[in-house]
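agent> call fold_tool(seq_1)
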Amino acid sequence: MISKSDEKDFNEIYQIINDAAIAYRGIIPPDRWHEPYMSTNELQDQIDDGIEFWKYVEDDKILGVMGIQDKKEVTLIRHAYTRTVNRKTGVGSKLLQHLSNICTSPILIGTWADAKWAIRFYEKHSFNLLKKEEADMLLRRFWTIPDRQVETSVVLASKDWNWP
């Protein structure tokens, strides 16, 4: 079952993000990696900045989370994570499909350039990898991330993306 998360889910979202982020160790540049990957303060800042988390639940347990952030002309998919023990079971696909269905504006997804499996996942779901110049411009416009993260990230866009 997929539903919007609420305040009571905060600790479980935090745990899922940090559990799943282990897959990025060695992929994320060493100068950007830290443990925990996301602190509770950082997670709260992300929520305060407008990220709305959705959860996939089975047997009263959250197996995966994915955030969306409305930026008026686009919607960002943010912080898409599935518990390590539940990877490759369709949780991420179901969350992405659900969020794609409820979004009314084109969707952009940023991820680490060296996370090839993440890029393949989004491409499998009909997202297109954008050229580096366009991606860099979009990362600076719609995300609040350091320049170093812009340098090491890519952006994928939904089929309805059409930059003016």
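agent> call fold_tool(seq_2)
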Amino acid sequence: MEYGINVDELLKILSQKKIIIYGIGHVGMKFFYALKKHRLEKNIISFAVSTPLEGQSNIDGIPIRSIEELDNQESVIVCIAVHEAWKEKIAHKLKIVEYIWIYPFLYELLLGHPIELDVNVDLNRMIKTCMGDYRLAVRYMAIEQYFKKNKVGYDIYIKAASLYCDKRTAEERLLKFIELVHNWEHFGYDKSSQVLINTQYEIIDGTHRIATARYFGQKKIICNIFSNELPITKLHGEKAMLTEKVLKDGGFCSEEREELDIRNKIIRGE
């Protein structure tokens, strides 16, 4: 399916279809929550995965099926609910003709339409909302390794991302991040790729771009602004916030946390 549609048009399409959600991870569960918010859970006929999980056959009574079991059916649409790093690989495996990658629509499905578009926002306002966590520091260390300023940034990134998604996805996310940094280095800031924030300047989507912008000394970045009716922790989940407790519980030693503390100070300009 072409992506030249808006969220309202997508909802109309989904209301007329039987829905298979491909993905039961971080993105898949957000999309499931969004469908329930729009009262479309009755349209969901199954979840789908590449590799069935031992001991888990359903979510809220909705069956989980292998991708190989999916046959082309009339009035069925597969909603690919995964990170960008996986979308093409999954699309090539599908036998069902009609599918759509839903991540570009995800936050509007969850939060409604943005209340402001294409606003040039001071980076410092967003960075201040991350003072209690290490999301930006983890990304900053990965950027440093790209520029050969440390040898552990990639491992730190994968270890942190693996706290809220599987390791293979974390590795694929890192490759996409390296591609972002490479493009920024050679072609500059892509103003068409907006960061998503709420009215409290908390980051909804775009921590990689904010960390990269800070590394390159940029002062502002283009944002779309949403309401903050859904708390940011509920939106992302506690583990994705990468607080000190999350890192400790996830096996980060004191030396690793100290390195991240140093990067947080750099990011804050201290």
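agent> summarizing second result for user.
The longest helix spans residues 167-187. The chain has two domains: 7-111, 116-268.
agent> awaiting next instruction.
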